[in-house]
């Protein structure tokens, strides 16, 4: 909540020296896994333009997930917001329901003006047959690795860093309108389905601010991505991947 909502002003952020770096070690621990993920997206686009076969490019995803998972493991001790695990039954049910609602909206908000570019998607078919190893890796990565990596970056780091450089001192319930809007818009336009991305970003951010634990948006995000993977395989709408 903001000062105007409850009449209580959040504590002032500690002043940093003028020569202090823009990002501290805690920030880099949350930035680098996300940066690695983006690197592989850019690399895939470049290789595709250079004419590398799609069947080879598909294997960039397992490499991407492995790199991100490795970085998360290396920095795990610095993710204090994940310890201890705090999520009540009510919070868990709310996060689960939110994840399902976001999924429904994600596959519905697909009008032409709601899409940026022409995503090729991730088609694991070879000669008309699905490569189930690739499918399993894709769903595993999307449901377990990506939500953890993205929520650590978007919600835990960026949303709080906008409020104060010493972002670890900022409580989720103290985040204001500025942090919410900037993060939601950036999260939305990170995706081809930009409007669906904005809706998802708003839902996950509200969970974080309301429940005051990062596990809530992580769970909702995981539900959305996991069910989306099952829906994609069931319907063959590979462009959603």
Automatic annotation (TrEMBL):
<keyword id="KW-0472">Membrane</keyword>
<dbReference type="Pfam" id="PF02517">
    <property type="entry name" value="Rce1-like"/>
</dbReference>
<keyword id="KW-1133">Transmembrane helix</keyword>
<keyword id="KW-0378">Hydrolase</keyword>
<dbReference type="GO" id="GO:0006508">
    <property type="term" value="P:proteolysis"/>
</dbReference>
<feature type="transmembrane region" description="Helical">
    <location>
        <begin position="88"/>
        <end position="109"/>
    </location>
</feature>
<feature type="transmembrane region" description="Helical">
    <location>
        <begin position="27"/>
        <end position="44"/>
    </location>
</feature>
<dbReference type="GO" id="GO:0008233">
    <property type="term" value="F:peptidase activity"/>
</dbReference>
<keyword id="KW-0645">Protease</keyword>
<protein>
    <submittedName>
        <fullName>CAAX prenyl protease-related protein</fullName>
    </submittedName>
</protein>
<dbReference type="InterPro" id="IPR014346">
    <property type="entry name" value="Prenyl_protease-related"/>
</dbReference>
<feature type="transmembrane region" description="Helical">
    <location>
        <begin position="130"/>
        <end position="149"/>
    </location>
</feature>
<keyword id="KW-0812">Transmembrane</keyword>
<feature type="transmembrane region" description="Helical">
    <location>
        <begin position="180"/>
        <end position="207"/>
    </location>
</feature>
<feature type="domain" description="CAAX prenyl protease 2/Lysostaphin resistance protein A-like">
    <location>
        <begin position="137"/>
        <end position="226"/>
    </location>
</feature>
<feature type="transmembrane region" description="Helical">
    <location>
        <begin position="56"/>
        <end position="76"/>
    </location>
</feature>
<feature type="transmembrane region" description="Helical">
    <location>
        <begin position="214"/>
        <end position="233"/>
    </location>
</feature>
<dbReference type="InterPro" id="IPR003675">
    <property type="entry name" value="Rce1/LyrA-like_dom"/>
</dbReference>
